[in-house]
Amino acid sequence: MSPELTAINELRAELAELRAQLREVLARAPERELLTAAEVAELLKVNVKTVYARKSHLGAQHIGERGPGRKTRLRFDSERVHEVMRAGLPARVEDPPRRRRRGPNPPPSGMTAAGNPLLF
Question: Is residue 37 part of a domain?
Fold first, then answer.
């Protein structure tokens, strides 16, 4: 057998051994489930907006590619969410404050909306 064929066969044997080792490692590793914001909200019994407001505390991960005008999906590691639940934090966290819609500023007293003085 030529030296090249011997080297190729040795590499194939090493590759097969590495594949077997990888299978063993993956079989022992716990599978981590990723949850959507809605699933986390249901677990914590809060509004989905609260989950988004506390995304860094809950260990959010961006899934997908970012690009111009594209948002990534957020997923939450189930282990991290359960850690937060076990940490003694209240099961119900407050909803984030709602933003107040502001209309145009009212005209000063004695003036019309166009800024003209009232005649009476």
Answer: yes
